[in-house]
Structure formats: C-alpha cells, structure tokens
C-alpha cells in the first residue's frame, strides 16, 4: 500500500478497509443494533432500494400495462412491456456510463480499477467492451427479462399466480419488499455456483467474465443461457403471493440494478459526500479472481462454504489454488 493513502494499493486504485468485514444480516447470534442500522440504511433513507421502489410505483401508474390487459397474450401489451424494460435498462446503464466514464464526473475517486473500458481488442464483439456489453444487455437480456415479466403478469391476471394488494395486505407487502433482495441474493448465489462448473463456465459464463474491469453496461451483459437462469429469480412470484409493484421492483432490481452494482465505483459522490451506494469491492474481487465471492454481502454463503475473499493476499493465494483445481 502507499504511505499516503491506505485506500490505494499496487493492485487497486481504491479499496475499502481490508480485510473486508462481515456485513451479513444473518450473523449469529443476532445483533439487534446492527440489524436496526442495516434496516435504517437500506429502507429509511433515499437508498438505491427505496429509489427502485419509487420507480416501480411510477412504472405501475404510468408506463407498464395494467394487469387486466394481460389476461390474454397480445402484441400490444407485450411490446409495451418490452419497451419500458428496454428504456429503464438503457437509461440506467447509459446515465451511469455517461457520468462516470464519459463526463468523468467523479474522476478516479472511489473507482476500484485504474483502467478504463477496453477498446480495439478482438476479445469483444465490435472490438469494444462497452458496445459488446450493450449488445448483450439490450438484446437477449431485455428480451428474456421481459419474457419472465410477461409470463408472470399473465399468470397474475388469470389467477394462476396468487396476488395481494398493498392496501389489503400492507404487512406482507412491506415484508416482501425487504425479502425480495434477500431472495434474489440467495437465488443468485446458487445459480452463480452452477455457472462456475467448468462445462458451463467455458460455454456460457465466460462471456460475462470477460469484464474483469467492470462498468455499468457489464452488469446485465450475459450469455442468453445465463440470462435465463439469472432472470428465473422472478419465478418466486408464481408461487408466493405478490403484486405488480413487487414484480416491477424485482425486474428493476435484476436489470437496471445490475448496472448499479457493476458501476466500477463504490459510491456516487455529491459535494464530496457519499450519497448512493453502487458497486461493492466484494463483487469486484469476484470479477478479478473468479472462484470466490459468488454471492453478495447480505448472504453468508461464501463464508459458510469457504469461498469468501476478504481482499487479503492470503485469500488471493487460496482462491488461485482453488481455480487451478477446478479448471485443471
């Protein structure tokens, strides 16, 4: 590390305090004070999750088709659903990319990797990392995410999937908002572990992992098979009582939310103050070292199953040894 700035090192332009602490809400024994602070940080401030809920309400009121129109499959409401999903995904990733990588509104502050987005490299379609990621995100990504959305709306509209209303079931509605990101993290971990099986990694997941140095367009850039597995998180609405607002929140969390978590920066700074959480060093370590940190920080699976990388040199050595054994 440098003598002047402990947040910089030989390998990283920026990293948080190391080794990484355990921020999981599933600590044992439970810590009421920590849980209260976690809840307040995520749900009682203008956090990224609260912003997603507000956006879901706006989309429900003004943009996505009404549930009654989804009782039969028709091109009108299906195309409308695709267009809205395309727009929110493109606007989120595009705005973040413009601010951080074109306007350079934050410079290198809180940016994990020193490098910019790659150009002129045949590794990428169009020889351009951003254009490649846009192609996969807005192509198969939006199409498959919309497919799950359309099927779920049809199931809800016809009574095949159980539904609630915020007014009629306020406690379950609020509880569902809190639990959906935790469910998505659980689902993501196990799907991610499956995708790192060498057969699937080489043929499917390696497309996403070309993004060693991630950017906003990287998050939803995947092989179509990976999009199918990733978006299958929405199937929870087929069996657990839900509502269109909860469904749209989940869609935002999976699509535009991936652009936020792969921004390449830890937080958005406004007047030198951290105002919006974006990427995590936890997942940045996964993109660099591959066989570690398959989940996210809220679920304890990586710690429980020995795949946690805490940012230390010893953890890097262990992870590299695991990778050699898996891909031998």
UniProtKB/TrEMBL annotation:
> What is the protein's name according to its record?
Sterol desaturase family protein
Q: What is one process in the GO biological process aspect for this record?
A: lipid biosynthetic process
Q: Which Pfam families match?
A: FA_hydroxylase
Coarse class of the primary localization is membrane
An annotated GO cellular component = membrane
Where, subcellularly, is it found? Membrane
Keyword list, A-Z: Membrane, Transmembrane, Transmembrane helix
Transmembrane feature ranges? 50-67, 79-101, 135-157, 169-191
According to the lineage, what is the superkingdom?
Answer: Bacteria
Q: Does the keyword Transport apply?
A: no
Span of domain Fatty acid hydroxylase: 179-307
Q: What is the lineage of its organism?
A: Bacteria, Pseudomonadati, Pseudomonadota, Alphaproteobacteria, Rhodobacterales
Annotated GO molecular function terms are: iron ion binding; oxidoreductase activity
- What organism does this protein naturally occur in? Roseovarius faecimaris
